[in-house]
Amino acid sequence: LFYVGEDVKPFTPEKAKELVMALQQPAVFCNMVGDWPALRWNAEHLSAVLDGKTIQFRLGLKTVDLVPQFETRCSYVKATLKEFLAWSCGEPSCLSGPFSCYEYSKYWAYADYKYIARIFEDRPEFFQDIRWADFGFPGRSGKESTLWIGTEGANTPCHLDSYGCNLVLQVQGRKRWHLFPPGDTSFLYPTRIPYEESSVFSKVNVANPDLKCFPEFRNTTAHVATLSPGQVLLVPRHWWHYVESIDPITVSINSWIELDADHEARVEEAITRTLVCAMKSAEDPSDGDVWLNPTEVEATSHEINLQYLNKAVSAYFKSQKASMSAQACSSS
């Protein structure tokens, strides 16, 4: 893992973008976001700003198991950030609230993957608190970002993102990232169940691996980084990652940066979606909720999946044609 930049704004936006696009290993950028208003977005501040708005929290058990705690195995509640903070502090008022069935000592809670554009749709001025222009992406703000708020122990199972590379800003608390290179894919026992478009999960609980079931996991090379407030992590394309909150409350903001390689990945994902939906529907049409990740609302029809595939293939050929004509222009 490279830690880059220890002085004030060590990189110009142009240089930062060059690094983001070129680096093939994770990197932590320091001192790049000191003037971002988003650094004030701790849970208390967000609770005041959102003023009673409810968001969905995913709840998982703090007990350490040999298998990953996939999102299909978690519980879900809708609550305000005020209720969430009261529960995380162990306040008695929580005995009757949305978290009343979940003892804080036994459960963690995670409001993950929340689109900032949706949360702040009536407060668009907040989008400008996030300034990805400093990393060479002018015009990219909170509108193209997602928000993650969790308690200690909250985690995302080990997975890779099919599209883009990822920039992650830590705002409050610390998160520990376990990152694995694309070359470790076969050692991580990839699976498409639970199915989520754009995510490939690992069958291994990398924080507590079952080496009898998954002996090849021994061959992986983990890059472990603890991300602190004010730091920005670059997760390069197709790097596997398991992420856990290690402080009582954590807040982070991320944005996925589109890449040219995404056009091909969209074709692969469209084929996968068509096949998984076809096989699972044939298996048991009523058994949708077990194999679909909660982020995927419903299994779509075969016709819709084929339309999706058709669009992905068309877009891929269009991009190929555009890049070929660009190359021809530059060579002439």
Automatic annotation (TrEMBL):
Gene3D superfamilies: Cupin. One of its GO terms (cellular component) is cytoplasm. Residues 108-272 form the JmjC domain. Pfam families: Cupin_8. The keyword Protein transport does not apply. It comes from Dryobates pubescens (Downy woodpecker). Keywords: Cytoplasm. May play a role in cellular stress response. It is found in: Cytoplasm. This is HSPB1-associated protein 1. The keyword Nucleus does not apply. PROSITE patterns: JMJC. Its main location: cytoplasm.
